[in-house]
Protein backbone atom coordinates (compact mmCIF):
# COMPACT_ATOMS: atom_id res chain seq x y z
CA UNK A 1 0.00 0.00 0.00
CA UNK A 2 1.27 3.46 -0.90
CA UNK A 3 2.52 5.59 1.99
CA UNK A 4 2.23 8.77 -0.08
CA UNK A 5 -0.38 11.34 0.91
CA UNK A 6 -1.65 13.70 -1.78
CA UNK A 7 -2.63 17.18 -0.63
CA UNK A 8 -4.94 18.58 -3.31
CA UNK A 9 -4.75 22.37 -3.17
CA UNK A 10 -7.91 23.55 -4.92
CA UNK A 11 -10.56 20.82 -4.77
CA UNK A 12 -12.76 22.18 -7.56
CA UNK A 13 -13.52 20.35 -10.79
CA UNK A 14 -10.04 18.94 -11.46
CA UNK A 15 -8.70 18.81 -7.92
CA UNK A 16 -11.95 17.43 -6.55
CA UNK A 17 -12.01 14.73 -9.21
CA UNK A 18 -8.39 13.72 -8.57
CA UNK A 19 -8.73 13.81 -4.79
CA UNK A 20 -12.13 12.12 -4.81
CA UNK A 21 -10.91 9.35 -7.06
CA UNK A 22 -7.84 8.79 -4.89
CA UNK A 23 -9.95 8.62 -1.72
CA UNK A 24 -12.49 6.33 -3.40
CA UNK A 25 -9.60 3.99 -4.32
CA UNK A 26 -8.50 3.84 -0.67
CA UNK A 27 -5.47 6.09 -1.14
CA UNK A 28 -4.53 8.90 1.23
CA UNK A 29 -5.71 12.31 0.02
CA UNK A 30 -6.48 15.63 1.64
CA UNK A 31 -8.74 18.07 -0.20
CA UNK A 32 -8.12 21.78 0.35
CA UNK A 33 -11.19 23.93 -0.27
CA UNK A 34 -13.00 26.99 1.05
CA UNK A 35 -16.41 28.44 1.76
CA UNK A 36 -19.54 26.41 1.16
CA UNK A 37 -17.62 23.76 -0.75
CA UNK A 38 -15.35 23.11 2.23
CA UNK A 39 -18.35 22.98 4.58
CA UNK A 40 -20.10 20.45 2.35
CA UNK A 41 -17.00 18.26 2.04
CA UNK A 42 -16.63 18.21 5.81
CA UNK A 43 -20.28 17.51 6.57
CA UNK A 44 -21.30 15.03 3.86
CA UNK A 45 -18.21 14.16 1.81
CA UNK A 46 -17.67 14.57 -1.92
CA UNK A 47 -20.43 13.53 -4.29
CA UNK A 48 -18.72 12.12 -7.39
CA UNK A 49 -20.99 11.77 -10.43
CA UNK A 50 -19.75 9.94 -13.53
CA UNK A 51 -21.36 8.18 -16.50
CA UNK A 52 -21.23 4.93 -14.52
CA UNK A 53 -21.68 5.86 -10.86
CA UNK A 54 -23.06 8.33 -8.37
CA UNK A 55 -21.20 7.94 -5.08
CA UNK A 56 -20.51 10.07 -2.04
CA UNK A 57 -16.93 9.63 -0.87
CA UNK A 58 -15.86 10.49 2.69
CA UNK A 59 -12.90 12.85 2.42
CA UNK A 60 -10.42 14.62 4.66
CA UNK A 61 -10.98 18.31 3.90
CA UNK A 62 -9.11 21.34 5.27
CA UNK A 63 -9.08 25.06 4.62
CA UNK A 64 -5.31 25.61 4.66
CA UNK A 65 -1.89 24.47 5.92
CA UNK A 66 -2.63 25.60 9.47
CA UNK A 67 -5.06 22.65 9.73
CA UNK A 68 -2.57 20.02 8.56
CA UNK A 69 0.79 18.72 9.72
CA UNK A 70 2.86 18.11 6.60
CA UNK A 71 5.44 15.32 6.51
CA UNK A 72 7.98 14.15 3.96
CA UNK A 73 5.44 11.58 2.71
CA UNK A 74 3.27 14.39 1.31
CA UNK A 75 2.95 15.40 -2.33
CA UNK A 76 1.25 18.72 -3.05
CA UNK A 77 -1.04 18.87 -6.09
CA UNK A 78 -2.05 22.41 -7.06
CA UNK A 79 -5.31 22.30 -9.03
CA UNK A 80 -6.66 25.83 -8.71
CA UNK A 81 -7.34 28.06 -11.70
CA UNK A 82 -4.06 29.53 -12.95
CA UNK A 83 -4.94 33.06 -11.82
CA UNK A 84 -5.34 31.67 -8.29
CA UNK A 85 -2.06 29.73 -8.32
CA UNK A 86 0.27 32.46 -6.99
CA UNK A 87 -1.75 32.77 -3.77
CA UNK A 88 -1.96 29.00 -3.39
CA UNK A 89 1.75 28.51 -3.98
CA UNK A 90 2.84 31.18 -1.52
CA UNK A 91 0.36 29.93 1.09
CA UNK A 92 1.78 26.42 0.98
CA UNK A 93 5.47 26.97 0.12
CA UNK A 94 6.39 28.21 3.59
CA UNK A 95 4.31 25.65 5.51
CA UNK A 96 6.48 23.65 7.93
CA UNK A 97 7.34 20.03 7.19
CA UNK A 98 7.71 17.67 10.15
CA UNK A 99 9.81 14.56 10.71
CA UNK A 100 10.71 12.78 13.94
CA UNK A 101 8.65 15.21 16.00
CA UNK A 102 10.40 18.35 14.75
CA UNK A 103 10.28 20.78 11.85
CA UNK A 104 12.87 19.89 9.21
CA UNK A 105 12.14 22.58 6.64
CA UNK A 106 9.43 24.13 4.53
CA UNK A 107 7.23 22.58 1.87
CA UNK A 108 9.04 24.58 -0.78
CA UNK A 109 12.33 23.07 0.33
CA UNK A 110 11.25 19.51 1.10
CA UNK A 111 8.14 18.54 -0.84
CA UNK A 112 7.35 17.95 -4.50
CA UNK A 113 4.54 19.96 -6.09
CA UNK A 114 2.48 18.83 -9.08
CA UNK A 115 0.83 21.57 -11.14
CA UNK A 116 -2.47 20.20 -12.50
CA UNK A 117 -3.60 23.42 -14.19
CA UNK A 118 -4.44 24.57 -17.70
CA UNK A 119 -1.91 26.69 -19.56
CA UNK A 120 1.88 26.68 -19.27
CA UNK A 121 2.54 29.42 -16.70
CA UNK A 122 2.05 27.59 -13.40
CA UNK A 123 5.27 25.58 -13.63
CA UNK A 124 7.35 28.76 -13.77
CA UNK A 125 5.28 30.21 -10.94
CA UNK A 126 5.92 27.12 -8.83
CA UNK A 127 9.68 27.08 -9.49
CA UNK A 128 9.94 30.43 -7.72
CA UNK A 129 8.87 28.73 -4.47
CA UNK A 130 9.46 24.97 -4.83
CA UNK A 131 12.65 23.08 -5.60
CA UNK A 132 10.85 20.10 -7.14
CA UNK A 133 8.12 20.87 -9.68
CA UNK A 134 6.23 18.40 -11.86
CA UNK A 135 3.85 19.51 -14.59
CA UNK A 136 0.56 17.72 -15.18
CA UNK A 137 -1.20 17.93 -18.54
CA UNK A 138 -4.85 17.44 -17.64
CA UNK A 139 -7.25 15.77 -20.05
CA UNK A 140 -10.37 15.35 -17.97
CA UNK A 141 -13.89 16.67 -18.67
CA UNK A 142 -14.84 17.64 -15.13
CA UNK A 143 -17.38 20.14 -13.79
CA UNK A 144 -17.81 21.77 -10.37
CA UNK A 145 -20.86 24.01 -9.95
CA UNK A 146 -22.47 22.79 -6.71
CA UNK A 147 -20.78 22.74 -3.26
CA UNK A 148 -19.68 19.23 -2.35
CA UNK A 149 -20.11 17.85 -5.87
CA UNK A 150 -17.89 17.11 -8.86
CA UNK A 151 -19.05 15.71 -12.21
CA UNK A 152 -16.64 13.73 -14.39
CA UNK A 153 -17.81 12.86 -17.90
CA UNK A 154 -14.95 10.56 -18.96
CA UNK A 155 -15.38 6.77 -19.12
CA UNK A 156 -14.35 4.06 -18.64
CA UNK A 157 -11.27 5.91 -17.34
CA UNK A 158 -11.92 9.28 -15.73
CA UNK A 159 -9.18 11.03 -17.68
CA UNK A 160 -5.57 11.11 -18.84
CA UNK A 161 -2.89 12.91 -16.82
CA UNK A 162 0.57 13.27 -18.39
CA UNK A 163 3.11 13.97 -15.62
CA UNK A 164 6.77 14.99 -15.86
CA UNK A 165 9.58 16.86 -14.12
CA UNK A 166 9.98 20.54 -14.98
CA UNK A 167 12.54 21.21 -16.16
CA UNK A 168 13.23 17.87 -17.83
CA UNK A 169 14.97 15.46 -17.63
CA UNK A 170 14.20 13.51 -14.47
CA UNK A 171 16.81 12.04 -12.13
CA UNK A 172 16.49 8.86 -10.05
CA UNK A 173 14.57 10.55 -7.25
CA UNK A 174 12.16 12.07 -9.77
CA UNK A 175 11.69 8.73 -11.47
CA UNK A 176 10.84 7.07 -8.16
CA UNK A 177 8.24 9.72 -7.39
CA UNK A 178 6.76 9.59 -10.89
CA UNK A 179 6.50 5.80 -10.71
CA UNK A 180 4.61 6.11 -7.41
CA UNK A 181 2.27 8.76 -8.81
CA UNK A 182 1.64 6.62 -11.87
CA UNK A 183 0.86 3.58 -9.72
CA UNK A 184 -1.47 5.46 -7.36
CA UNK A 185 -3.28 7.52 -9.97
CA UNK A 186 -3.73 4.52 -12.23
CA UNK A 187 -5.38 2.75 -9.29
CA UNK A 188 -7.63 5.83 -8.99
CA UNK A 189 -8.95 5.27 -12.54
CA UNK A 190 -6.66 7.54 -14.59
CA UNK A 191 -4.30 6.88 -17.45
CA UNK A 192 -0.93 8.35 -16.42
CA UNK A 193 1.71 8.58 -19.17
CA UNK A 194 5.17 9.78 -18.09
CA UNK A 195 6.66 11.66 -21.06
CA UNK A 196 10.33 12.60 -20.99
CA UNK A 197 9.26 16.25 -21.32
CA UNK A 198 5.71 17.14 -20.29
CA UNK A 199 5.75 20.75 -21.54
CA UNK A 200 5.17 20.01 -25.26
CA UNK A 201 2.02 18.19 -24.14
CA UNK A 202 0.95 21.20 -22.10
CA UNK A 203 1.53 23.54 -25.04
CA UNK A 204 -0.62 21.29 -27.23
CA UNK A 205 -3.33 21.36 -24.55
CA UNK A 206 -2.97 25.15 -24.47
CA UNK A 207 -3.93 25.26 -28.15
CA UNK A 208 -7.03 23.16 -27.40
CA UNK A 209 -7.99 25.46 -24.52
CA UNK A 210 -7.99 28.57 -26.73
CA UNK A 211 -11.56 27.67 -27.65
CA UNK A 212 -12.76 27.87 -24.03
CA UNK A 213 -13.44 31.57 -24.42
CA UNK A 214 -15.84 31.03 -27.34
CA UNK A 215 -17.84 28.50 -25.37
CA UNK A 216 -18.05 30.91 -22.44
CA UNK A 217 -18.91 34.11 -24.30
CA UNK A 218 -21.20 32.70 -26.99
CA UNK A 219 -22.32 29.31 -25.63
CA UNK A 220 -24.31 28.13 -28.63
CA UNK A 221 -25.48 31.61 -29.66
CA UNK A 222 -24.14 31.24 -33.20
CA UNK A 223 -21.30 29.47 -35.00
CA UNK A 224 -17.84 30.37 -33.65
CA UNK A 225 -16.04 27.68 -35.66
CA UNK A 226 -14.41 30.06 -38.15
CA UNK A 227 -13.32 32.41 -35.34
CA UNK A 228 -11.81 29.52 -33.40
CA UNK A 229 -9.90 28.31 -36.46
CA UNK A 230 -8.33 31.72 -37.03
CA UNK A 231 -7.48 32.06 -33.34
CA UNK A 232 -5.78 28.66 -33.28
CA UNK A 233 -3.91 29.36 -36.51
CA UNK A 234 -2.58 32.60 -35.01
CA UNK A 235 -1.43 30.73 -31.91
CA UNK A 236 0.35 28.03 -33.88
CA UNK A 237 2.18 30.70 -35.88
CA UNK A 238 3.28 32.43 -32.68
CA UNK A 239 4.48 29.22 -31.00
CA UNK A 240 6.35 28.17 -34.14
CA UNK A 241 7.93 31.62 -34.44
CA UNK A 242 9.04 31.42 -30.81
CA UNK A 243 10.66 28.01 -31.38
CA UNK A 244 8.49 26.32 -28.76
CA UNK A 245 8.10 22.54 -29.01
CA UNK A 246 4.49 21.38 -29.29
CA UNK A 247 3.30 17.77 -29.33
CA UNK A 248 2.08 16.92 -32.82
CA UNK A 249 -1.60 16.56 -33.61
CA UNK A 250 -0.91 12.95 -34.63
CA UNK A 251 0.70 12.06 -31.29
CA UNK A 252 -2.07 13.79 -29.39
CA UNK A 253 -4.76 11.99 -31.39
CA UNK A 254 -3.06 8.64 -30.80
CA UNK A 255 -2.89 9.25 -27.06
CA UNK A 256 -6.52 10.33 -26.88
CA UNK A 257 -7.73 7.32 -28.85
CA UNK A 258 -6.13 5.02 -26.29
CA UNK A 259 -7.72 6.76 -23.31
CA UNK A 260 -11.12 7.91 -22.12
CA UNK A 261 -14.11 9.08 -24.11
CA UNK A 262 -16.86 11.47 -23.03
CA UNK A 263 -20.28 10.13 -22.10
CA UNK A 264 -23.47 11.66 -20.69
CA UNK A 265 -23.84 11.75 -16.93
CA UNK A 266 -27.40 10.99 -15.75
CA UNK A 267 -29.20 14.16 -14.73
CA UNK A 268 -26.53 16.50 -16.12
CA UNK A 269 -27.41 18.68 -19.15
CA UNK A 270 -25.33 18.06 -22.26
CA UNK A 271 -24.47 21.76 -22.63
CA UNK A 272 -22.49 22.03 -19.39
CA UNK A 273 -19.22 23.68 -20.40
CA UNK A 274 -15.54 23.81 -19.59
CA UNK A 275 -13.49 25.75 -17.08
CA UNK A 276 -14.05 29.28 -18.45
CA UNK A 277 -17.79 28.64 -18.87
CA UNK A 278 -17.90 27.38 -15.28
CA UNK A 279 -16.20 30.55 -13.99
CA UNK A 280 -18.76 32.79 -15.72
CA UNK A 281 -21.60 30.54 -14.56
CA UNK A 282 -20.47 30.71 -10.93
CA UNK A 283 -19.81 34.45 -11.19
CA UNK A 284 -16.30 34.22 -9.75
CA UNK A 285 -15.34 37.63 -11.15
CA UNK A 286 -12.23 36.32 -12.89
CA UNK A 287 -11.27 33.76 -15.54
CA UNK A 288 -8.09 31.98 -16.58
CA UNK A 289 -8.18 33.33 -20.16
CA UNK A 290 -5.19 35.57 -19.42
CA UNK A 291 -3.17 32.34 -19.14
CA UNK A 292 -4.71 30.75 -22.26
CA UNK A 293 -5.31 33.24 -25.06
CA UNK A 294 -3.34 35.76 -23.01
CA UNK A 295 -0.38 33.37 -22.92
CA UNK A 296 -0.23 33.45 -26.72
CA UNK A 297 -0.27 37.26 -26.58
CA UNK A 298 2.56 37.18 -24.02
CA UNK A 299 4.71 34.87 -26.14
CA UNK A 300 4.05 37.00 -29.21
CA UNK A 301 5.04 40.20 -27.42
CA UNK A 302 8.19 38.61 -26.00
CA UNK A 303 9.34 37.41 -29.42
CA UNK A 304 8.53 40.43 -31.55
CA UNK A 305 5.36 38.96 -33.02
CA UNK A 306 1.69 39.95 -32.91
CA UNK A 307 -1.36 38.01 -31.71
CA UNK A 308 -4.25 40.48 -32.00
CA UNK A 309 -7.06 37.91 -31.93
CA UNK A 310 -5.85 36.13 -28.81
CA UNK A 311 -5.02 39.40 -27.08
CA UNK A 312 -8.48 40.78 -27.79
CA UNK A 313 -10.20 37.60 -26.67
CA UNK A 314 -8.35 37.73 -23.35
CA UNK A 315 -9.55 41.31 -22.88
CA UNK A 316 -13.17 40.44 -23.70
CA UNK A 317 -13.15 37.49 -21.29
CA UNK A 318 -11.68 39.64 -18.52
CA UNK A 319 -14.36 42.26 -19.06
CA UNK A 320 -17.12 39.65 -19.15
CA UNK A 321 -16.02 38.15 -15.83
CA UNK A 322 -15.64 41.52 -14.14
CA UNK A 323 -19.10 42.65 -15.28
CA UNK A 324 -20.83 39.43 -14.22
CA UNK A 325 -21.80 38.50 -17.77
CA UNK A 326 -23.41 35.08 -18.12
CA UNK A 327 -22.36 32.50 -20.74
CA UNK A 328 -24.04 33.05 -24.10
CA UNK A 329 -24.80 36.74 -23.56
CA UNK A 330 -22.89 37.56 -26.75
CA UNK A 331 -23.70 36.31 -30.25
CA UNK A 332 -21.11 34.90 -32.63
CA UNK A 333 -21.74 37.83 -34.97
CA UNK A 334 -21.22 40.35 -32.18
CA UNK A 335 -18.01 38.63 -31.13
CA UNK A 336 -16.74 38.66 -34.72
CA UNK A 337 -17.44 42.38 -34.88
CA UNK A 338 -15.58 43.03 -31.64
CA UNK A 339 -12.62 41.07 -33.02
CA UNK A 340 -12.65 43.14 -36.20
CA UNK A 341 -13.59 40.12 -38.31
CA UNK A 342 -17.18 41.00 -39.23
From TrEMBL:
Gene3D superfamilies recorded: N-(1-d-carboxylethyl)-l-norvaline Dehydrogenase, domain 2, NAD(P)-binding Rossmann-like Domain
Ketopantoate reductase N-terminal domain location, by residue? Answer: 7-159
Instruction: Name the keywords, alphabetized.
Output: Oxidoreductase
Superkingdom of the source species: Bacteria
Q: What is the lineage of its organism?
A: Bacteria, Bacillati, Actinomycetota, Actinomycetes, Propionibacteriales
Q: Provide the Ketopantoate reductase C-terminal domain boundaries.
A: 220-319
In short, the EC number is 1.1.1.169
Q: Which Pfam families does this one have?
A: ApbA (PF02558), ApbA_C (PF08546)
Q: Name one GO molecular function term.
A: 2-dehydropantoate 2-reductase activity
* Name assigned to this protein: 2-dehydropantoate 2-reductase
Q: What class of enzyme is it?
A: oxidoreductase
Amino acid sequence: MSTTRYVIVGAGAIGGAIGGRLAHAGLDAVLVARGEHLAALRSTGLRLRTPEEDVTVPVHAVGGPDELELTEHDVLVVATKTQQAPDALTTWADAPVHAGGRVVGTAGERLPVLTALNGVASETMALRYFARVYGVCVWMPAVHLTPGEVIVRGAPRSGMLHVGRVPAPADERDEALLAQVQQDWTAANYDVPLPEDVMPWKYRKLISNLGNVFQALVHGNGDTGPLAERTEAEARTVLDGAGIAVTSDEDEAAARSAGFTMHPVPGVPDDVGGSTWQSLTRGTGNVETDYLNGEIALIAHRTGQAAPLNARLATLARQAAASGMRPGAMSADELAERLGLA
